[in-house]
């Protein structure tokens, strides 16, 4: 049996409290208090290992000067790690019971940090405004909504300049994949419009409660300027969707119906008409969109 050793709170400078992070027993007690049965549909797998939480926070590189957007804080494992590092946190939680519980948990376990937490009860895909202008995003995202949420947040909030997301390992590979990679596809290309992405670590299933059946991956996201193009983001993304509509087909086939002469459009964009979508970068897709929608 794994024994839980309760360490007294230690204060490390202004706003930093160490020793209040949540363990497996804490998570179960909090869940029982609101009659919560973790939902597979919502991807409710909560990190119970303090070392893992601190590793994620360290990889995110956030501290006293940062306001962090956290999506899906759940019972608060990662939230408390971010607060422990001195950051302020704006948390978006769709579950009303969890959104109500989180400030109470922080006030009880980390009272000095409570004023640095704001909680929004909402679907992250519907949020259009945020308080306190977060500059970074850190989140443990369920695989089924991870890509739409990341793209929505980056598109809606240009002030977010960096991020670290924990997603299913396969999704992490797709997000960070370069052109030509076997797993490069729509998520890779669309994320590249906003940011660079790279895998920075893995997280094993046994640090979660309940234990998922898959490994998770950590992806670092760094904002960059989109390609210099006269095409709109929506137009470029339309081309990306078409380019990957049938991976084994050449671009000129996938763009049929979008342009009268796909081969001529591709040649004008400086792209080989026999190329396939998985070989092109976001700059190439932007050049194609300019020709298609000119």
What descriptors fit this protein?
7-stranded mixed sheet; disordered N terminus; 294 residues; 2 domains; 11 helices; 35% helix; alpha/beta; single chain; Helicase, Ruva Protein, domain 3; Rossmann fold; two-stranded antiparallel ribbon
Please describe what this structure looks like.
With 294 residues, the chain is an alpha/beta fold. It contains eleven helices and eleven strands. Helix 5 links the parallel strand 7 and strand 8. The longest helix has 14 residues, at 96-109. Mean pLDDT is 92; it is low at 1-18.
Short account of what is shown:
The protein is α/β, with parallel strands linked by helices and 294 residues long. The chain folds into 2 domains: 10-223, Vaccinia Virus protein VP39 (Rossmann fold, 3-Layer(aba) Sandwich); 233-292, Helicase, Ruva Protein, domain 3.
**Average pLDDT number:** 92
What is the CATH H-level superfamily of the largest domain?
Answer: Vaccinia Virus protein VP39
> By helix and strand content, what is the structural category?
alpha/beta
| CATH architecture heading of the largest domain | 3-Layer(aba) Sandwich
Approximate strand percentage: 15-25%
Order of SSEs: EEHEHEHEHEEHEHHEEEHHHH
Strands of the widest sheet, in order across it, are: 6-5-4-7-8-11-9
User: What's the tally of helices?
Assistant: 11
Distance between the termini: 67 Å
């Amino acid at each position: 049996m794994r024994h839980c050793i309760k360490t007294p709170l230690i204060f490390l400078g202004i706003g930093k409290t160490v020793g209040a992070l949540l363990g497996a027993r804490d998570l179960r007690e909090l869940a029982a208090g609101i009659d919560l049965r973790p939902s597979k549909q919502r991807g409710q797998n909560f990190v119970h290992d303090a070392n893992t939480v601190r590793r994620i926070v360290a990889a995110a590189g956030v501290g006293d000067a940062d306001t962090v957007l956290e999506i899906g804080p759940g019972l608060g494992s990662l939230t408390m790690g971010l607060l422990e590092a001195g950051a302020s946190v704006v948390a978006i939680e769709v579950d009303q019971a969890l959104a109500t519980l989180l400030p109470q948990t922080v006030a009880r376990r980390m009272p000095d940090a409570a004023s640095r937490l704001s909680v929004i009860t909402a679907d992250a895909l519907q949020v259009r405004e945020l308080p306190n202008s977060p500059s970074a995003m850190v989140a443990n995202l369920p695989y089924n909504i991870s890509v739409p949420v990341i793209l929505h947040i980056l598109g809606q909030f240009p002030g977010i300049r960096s991020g670290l997301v924990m997603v299913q390992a396969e999704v992490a590979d797709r997000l960070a994949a370069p052109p030509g990679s076997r797993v490069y596809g729509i998520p890779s290309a669309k994320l590249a419009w906003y940011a660079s992405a790279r895998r920075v670590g893995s997280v094993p299933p046994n640090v979660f409660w309940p234990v998922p059946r898959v490994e998770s991956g950590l992806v670092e996201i760094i904002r960059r300027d989109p390609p210099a193009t006269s095409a709109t983001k929506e137009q470029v993304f339309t081309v990306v969707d078409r380019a990957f509509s049938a991976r084994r087909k050449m671009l000129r086939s996938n763009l049929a119906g979008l342009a009268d002469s796909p081969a001529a459009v591709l040649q004008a964009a400086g792209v080989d008409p026999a190329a396939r979508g998985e070989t092109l970068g976001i700059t190439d897709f932007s050049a194609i969109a300019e020709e298609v929608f000119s």
